[in-house]
Amino acid sequence: MGFLMGLSRAIDRLNDFVGRCVYWLILIVVLISAGNAISRYLFSLSSNAWLEIQWYLFSAVFLLGAGYTLLNNEHVRIDVLYARLSPRRKAWVDIIGGLFFLLPVTIFIMVLSWPMFHTAFVRMEMSGNTGGLIRWPVLLLMPVGFFLLSLQGVSEVIKRIAYLAGRAPYPGRGQTHSEVIRDV
Q1: 8 A C-beta contact, residue 149 and residue 67
Q2: Domain that holds residue 177
Q3: CA separation (Å) from 101 to 31, 96, 113, 156?
Q4: In the 8-state DSSP scheme, what is residue 134?
């Protein structure tokens, strides 16, 4: 169990690092958007590349931040029934959901998205818009983002199993990611 707990901590640290880096992309998107609006309205200058880089960065926030969001237990869920469960039952729901829903879907999306990235990379595919950007970087975000999410899913399953085995506190809402990392 010690190796698995160490693996879980390493995955948590990776997604925590990526998530904190992704924070800065939001600021960059805001600055690009403001700069694009100012140049368009004051100087009548604009480029599709400025719009596309905003879309790319916004995609990066969602895709690369998904694992960080799961680490912090902030994904949207329907808590009508889940909230009434005991921590042990919540742990079982999380384990079953992680193993039979989250991991298969994330792996499936990774597998399906890789050929799209590879094809765009090999062909150096460009946007169809005038002045558009190359497409492979944004297509690479899909397999990488779902890889990070699947890694975090593995970490969450490990933490729930450790809780059920009595080796870790319940890693549920109310605990920040740093408390979970420290407690595991």
Answers
A1: yes
A2: 2-183
A3: 38, 8, 18, 13
A4: B
Q: How far is CA 3 from the centre of its chain?
A: 24
**145 contacts 63 by C-beta, under 8 angstroms:** yes
Query: E strands of 38-180, at which residues?
Result: none
Of 143, 174, 121, give the one whose Cα is nearest residue 66: 143
Q: Would you report the helix, strand and coil content of the chain in percent, each value rounded to 5?
A: 75, 0, 20
Give this prediction's pTM.
0.87
Number of domains in the chain: 1
Print pLDDT tens along the chain (184 aa): 889 999 999 999 999 999 999 999 999 999 999 999 999 889 888 888 888 999 999 999 999 999 999 999 888 777 788 888 999 999 999 999 999 999 999 999 999 999 999 999 999 999 888 888 999 999 999 999 999 999 999 999 999 999 999 989 988 755 544 444 444 4
Give me 16's structure tokens. 């925590």
Structure tokens at 68: 């960080």
